[in-house]
Amino acid sequence: MLTRQESIDLLSEYGRGEGWIKHCFAVAEATARVGHILAKRRSVDGSFLWSAALLHDIGRYRTHDPLLHGVEGYKLLSMSGHEKEAFVCASHILFGLNAAEAMQTGLPNRDFIPRTMEEKLVPLVDYLIEYDQPTTLDSRFLSLRKRNSGNMFFLDRLDRAQQRAQIFMSQIEDETGESVEKIVASR
Predict the structure, then answer these.
(1) pLDDT (tens digit per residue) in 137-154
(2) How confident is the model over 5-12, as a mean pLDDT?
(3) Residues 6 or more apart from 81 whose CB is under 8 A from it?
(4) Residue 86 has what pLDDT?
């Protein structure tokens, strides 16, 4: 598993000062805040959570495509031997892809569906950060629909992704008694 500094170094190497790395840091910090609240009630691997959140979009060094950046991040981190973080790059796409969908995007023929708390928190919080600013789930999905209006593969699965995110967010809120959107928005 990557350390915090190794994750920062990787993002710096591949991000080369590009603006999208601000989003990665914003997601990592907000994910850590949500993870901290959850850690009061259950086991959360805060170190992995922060690194996985920081690197979830590392594939943007190659492409800003809403699907393929996750594939590129998966390939990069897998080749470097960081399988857990690589899985998060792939599984944060649309809050998870089944094996058939994964193959269509260039991933191996297996499910890339987040299962652990940490794997689910990354895409949820990613959907609550627009660029580097907090937003609401509804606003972010509206923005994603507008920005990707020509990508039918993506759009056909976006409602499912929103539903998964909403269900998971509700579960966290029921467990913690706190609004995830408010936690993400706090700094």
Answers:
(1) 999 999 999 999 999 999
(2) 98
(3) none
(4) 98
* Burial label, 115 (beta-carbon count in 10 A; 0-12, 13-18, 19+): exposed
- Cα–Cα nearest to 58, from 42, 47, 74: 74
Distance CA 20, CA 57 (A): 8
CA dihedral 64, 7, 27, 46 (to 10 degrees): 150
Per residue in 98-141, pLDDT (tens digit) is 999 999 999 999 999 999 999 999 999 999 999 999 999 999 99
Choose among 164, 144, 163: nearest CA to 154. Answer: 144
Q: What is the pTM of this model?
A: 0.97
Q: 4-185: what fold?
A: Hypothetical protein af1432 (1.10.3210)
CA angle 13, 16, 56 (to 5 degrees): 70
For the chain, give every domain's residue range: 4-185
DSSP secondary structure letters along 92-161: TGGG-B-HHHHHHHT--SS-B---SHHHHHHHHHHTTEETTEE--HHHHHHHHHHHTTT-HHHHHHHHHH
What's the rounded Cα separation, in Å, for the pair 93 and 96? 6
Which residue type sits at 80?
Answer: S
